[in-house]
Amino acid sequence: MTKIIQISDPHIVLKGELAYGRVDTGASLKSCVETINRILPDIGPVDMAIVTGDLTDFGTAQEYQRFRNIMEPLAIPYRAIPGNHDDVTKMHAGFADQDWMPRSGPINLSAEFADMALIGLDTNVAGAAHGHLTDTTLDYLQDMLAALHKKPVIVAIHHPPILIGIEKMDIQNLRDSRKLQTILSEYQGELKLVCGHVHRNITAMFGSVICQIAPGTSHAVSMDLRVGAPNCLTKEPGAFLLHEMRGGILTHVIPVGQFDGPHLFYPSKC
C-alpha cells in the first residue's frame, strides 16, 4: 500500500539565526528528518515525502541550500511545492538539478504509485501572503486528474481554501477557490486535499472532499479564535502527517522527536 509523508512549513533561515527571533527552525527540521528515519522500520516502506510550502522564511538561495543540506539524510525521496514565504524563481534555481522540478513557470508536480497518486500545485503569489491558483495550474490539475482514471489521489497545496476561524490566517487563505472546488468535487475517484500554511492539524470539508491542514515542523500559529486577535506563534511541538492507502486514504499525525516507549501495556501477561 502506498504511503506518503507530508512535511510542512519548515521556514528555514540561515544557520545561527532564529525565525522571528524565537524559533530554531533548522534544528526542528533536522529532528523531523531524524524522527522519520528512525521510525521507518515501523511505519514503512514509505514511497515519498511532500513538503507543502514555506521551505524557507525569506526565499533566499542560501536558505534553500540549507534546507537541502538538512533534508539530505532523509531516507526516502521528497518533492516540494512553494508557499508564500518562498521565492519561486529562487526555488527553481535551488532545485534545478532535480528531475521533478519544472524548468520554468508554476512549480506543479505529480507522482503516480501502484494504488495512489500525488499532485502538488503552486499557490504562490509573488510578494503576497495569500494564495491563488493560475489558469495554467488549474488546467494542469484537470489534465492530471483525467489521466488518473479514478485512481485515489492526494492533491497538495500550501494555502487552505477553507476558513478556520483564525482571523489573520483566513485573510491569507487561498482566494478564488470555487473552480478548484468544482474540479476536485467532480473527480470520480477518491481524493483528499492536503495543505500547510497554518501550522496546525485541521480537517474540514471542501465541497465534497476532505481538506486536511498539516502541522508545522517547529511552531504553530496560535490558537486564538477571537475577532481582532494578533497574529502570533506558539512553540508547540512539531509534527508531520503520514497518508496511506488502507481501504481508502487514511492519515496519521506523528509528533517530531523521541519519546519514552514503546512499553507493553501488560508485560506480565505476555
What's this entry about, in short?
This protein has helices spanning 25-43, 61-71, 88-94, 135-148, 167-170, 178-186, and strands spanning 3-7, 48-52, 78-81, 109-112, 117-120, 153-156, 191-195, 202-206, 209-213, 220-221, 233-234, 239-245, 249-255. By secondary structure, the chain is an alpha/beta fold. A six-stranded mixed β-sheet has the order 4-5-6-7-9-8, with helices on one face. A five-stranded mixed β-sheet has the order 3-2-1-12-13, with no helix packed on it.
Give the spatial strand order of the biggest sheet: 4-5-6-7-9-8
Q: How many individual domains?
A: 1
What can be said about the biggest beta sheet? 6 strands, mixed
Topology pattern, helix = H, strand = E: EHEHEHEEHEHHEEEEEEE
Per CATH, which architecture?
Answer: 4-Layer Sandwich
Structural class: alpha/beta
Say which CATH homologous superfamily is assigned. Answer: Metallo-dependent phosphatases
What portion of the residues fall into strands of 2 or more residues? 15-25%
Q: What portion of residues is helical?
A: 10-25%
Shape: globular
CATH-defined fold name: Purple Acid Phosphatase, chain A, domain 2
Supply the CATH class: Alpha Beta
Radius of gyration: 18 Å
Let me know the number of strands: 13
Mean pLDDT: 97
Uncertain runs: none
Could you characterize the architecture of this molecule?
There is one protein chain. The chain has 270 residues and is α/β, with parallel strands linked by helices. The chain has a single domain, classed as Metallo-dependent phosphatases (Purple Acid Phosphatase, chain A, domain 2). It is built from six helices and 13 strands. The strands form three sheets. Strands 4-5-6-7-9-8 form a six-stranded mixed β-sheet, with helices on one face. Strands 3-2-1-12-13 form a five-stranded mixed β-sheet, with no helix packed on it. It has a two-stranded antiparallel ribbon with strand order 10-11. α4 links the parallel β5 and β6. The two termini are 30 Å apart. The mean pLDDT is 97.
